[in-house]
Amino acid sequence: MSIPTHIEELVNLKRIEGQIRGIQKMIEDKRYCIDILTQLSAVVGAIMKVEENILHRHVEGCVYQSFSMGSQKEKDEKVREVLEILKNFRKY
Prior knowledge:
By secondary structure, the chain is mainly alpha-helical. The chain is 82% helix and 0% strand. The protein has helices spanning 9-28, 33-69, 72-89. 0% of the residues are buried.
């Protein structure tokens, strides 16, 4: 199993970038608050999906590889790394 590159997420991130530009235009055009909030919610959801995809590939790739071929120290590091990132996800 190889280290993930996350290239697949560039399409999603570019789409999100376009959504952000659209929200900026909505604000410039003084659009209705609820319409802006709806678009912001869509962006947050899209970002969370990218985050989920990258975490999934990290666990399937990097963490799995560490557990199948790594030393005990590497395994311990990967477990601490995943627990730390999950703790940080709960902050928002």
